[in-house]
């Protein structure tokens, strides 16, 4: 049987082995893989798109291996699945993806950057085409165990399953974007199993604890801030509330502005969803606290005179300046300590509001509207919690 002739893409060559010096037979496979478009920056700093024809050239020790490689490469090229070799690293892919998210709010973009920081520090040097499932799984294990260094060099605390899954979702989105661009053939982020959700019960204050807290802060200059918190407002909504959005005569306030801490910056703007932009009735206790705050601010202004720094915010410092959102969290912790109450997060005041409303029989749809949620089901599953005294009362029904 006559020997099958080599196809034009395969060339039999002789090469010298570097170690032994002997001549070796090799089969070089050359395939036209189409065009490749890259972006280069010229001397003036202007990005220029460059398109050129490319070829794939590989050498194999046997003719059979060369023929198999040729068939596989041609099949990929003909079906539009061929991936050109790229020097793009994971860090570059992450940064390109983040820079393309033009519609994201600054706070959301900051959250993405924070959760992708360990991806950059641990995997950023790897070419994105060489990123493997074990690479990502190793990062997941290290984050769960804790100890990876932060940007400042401090060891990280162990990450929760929810935060790890959030990071995996971002990795998957980034690699999906790279697949669309033809830089990778598979999405290893999608191949990594998500961690099972951890059952975490939010901490809420009981009615007695809320009454004790509000009584404790009754003469505190920022008592109205804690009233607003116990009325279910978010920290950013409290910090961003303006007097122009408060109508004490009609007993209504509009949640129309937020001030959110994003790293070292304060981002101000409207609430992120339509449902979050809402108008709430002002209760009698809140009205009293707001009137007291406005009177105190007038006294502060009179006392400081030209040194008073007027601002439009309901919650402000004695100097007139807007309060930093982080200061609210710090002061909340100190207030709980001085009132000898157990620690709960400032955001848990919002959970407390929803839970106490629920225990009083207020419909879930109304609670959802009060909190600014789009879904009553979300309010029920996340923001309403059973409390021990309510469970004890329920037990009396079995007598």
Reported CATH architecture of the largest domain: Orthogonal Bundle
User: Helix amount, in percent?
Assistant: 40-55%
- Give the overall pLDDT as a whole number: 88
Strand content: 15-25%
CATH topology of the largest domain: hpI Integrase, Chain A
Please explain how this structure is put together.
This protein has three domains: 10-78, no CATH class; 90-191, Tyrosine recombinase, N-terminal domain (DNA polymerase, domain 1), CATH 1.10.150; 207-396, hpI Integrase, Chain A, CATH 1.10.443. Helix content is 44%, strand content 15%. It has helices at 63-78, 90-99, 106-123, 133-145, 161-180, 188-191, 207-216, 223-230, 235-240, 284-304, 325-338, 348-359, 364-371, 376-383, 388-395; strands at residues 10-16, 23-41, 47-60, 246-247, 252-255, 258-262, 265-269, 278-281. The protein has a three-stranded antiparallel β-sheet. A hairpin with a 2-residue loop joins strand 6 (258-262) and strand 7. It is elongated, with a radius of gyration of 31 Å. It starts with 9 loop residues before the first strand and ends with a helix. The model has no long low-confidence stretch (mean pLDDT 88).
Offer a few descriptive terms:
399 residues, alpha+beta, DNA polymerase, domain 1, hpI Integrase, Chain A, three-stranded antiparallel β-sheet, elongated
């Amino acid at each position: 049987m006559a020997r099958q002739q080599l196809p034009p893409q395969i060339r039999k060559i002789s090469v010298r082995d570097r170690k032994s010096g002997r001549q070796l037979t090799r089969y070089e496979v050359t395939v036209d893989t189409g065009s490749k478009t890259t972006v280069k920056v010229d001397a003036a700093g202007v990005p220029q798109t460059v398109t050129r024809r490319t070829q794939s050239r590989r050498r194999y020790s046997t003719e059979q291996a060369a023929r198999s490689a040729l068939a596989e490469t041609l099949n990929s090229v003909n079906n539009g699945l061929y991936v050109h070799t790229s020097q793009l690293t994971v860090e570059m892919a992450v940064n390109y993806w983040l820079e393309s998210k033009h519609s994201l709010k600054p706070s959301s973009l900051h959250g993405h950057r924070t959760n992708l920081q360990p991806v950059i520090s641990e995997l950023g040097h790897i070419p994105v085409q060489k990123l493997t499932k074990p690479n990502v799984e190793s990062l997941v294990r290290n984050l769960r165990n804790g100890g990876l260094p932060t940007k400042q060099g401090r060891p990280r605390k162990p990450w929760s399953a929810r935060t790890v899954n959030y990071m995996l979702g971002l990795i998957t989105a980034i690699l999906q974007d790279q697949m669309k661009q033809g830089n990778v053939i598979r999405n290893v982020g999608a191949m990594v199993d998500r961690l099972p959700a951890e059952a975490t019960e939010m901490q809420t204050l009981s009615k007695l604890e809320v009454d004790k807290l509000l009584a404790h802060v009754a003469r505190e200059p920022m008592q109205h801030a804690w009233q607003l918190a116990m009325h279910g407002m978010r920290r950013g909504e409290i910090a961003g509330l303006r007097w122009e959005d408060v109508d004490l005569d009609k007993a209504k306030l509009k949640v129309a502005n937020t001030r959110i801490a994003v790293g070292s910056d304060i981002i101000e703007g409207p609430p992120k969803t339509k449902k979050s932009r809402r108008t709430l009735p002002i209760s009698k206790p809140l009205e009293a606290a707001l009137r007291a705050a406005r009177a105190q601010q007038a006294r502060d202004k009179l006392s400081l005179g030209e040194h008073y720094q007027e601002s439009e915010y309901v919650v402000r410092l004695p100097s007139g300046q807007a309060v930093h959102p982080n200061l609210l969290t710090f002061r909340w912790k100190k207030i709980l300590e001085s009132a000898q109450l157990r620690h709960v997060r400032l955001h848990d005041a919002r959970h407390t509001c929803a839970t106490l409303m629920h225990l009083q029989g207020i419909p879930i749809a109304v609670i959802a509207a009060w909190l600014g949620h789009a879904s009553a089901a979300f309010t029920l599953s996340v923001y309403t919690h059973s409390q021990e005294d309510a469970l004890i009362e329920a037990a009396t029904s079995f007598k």
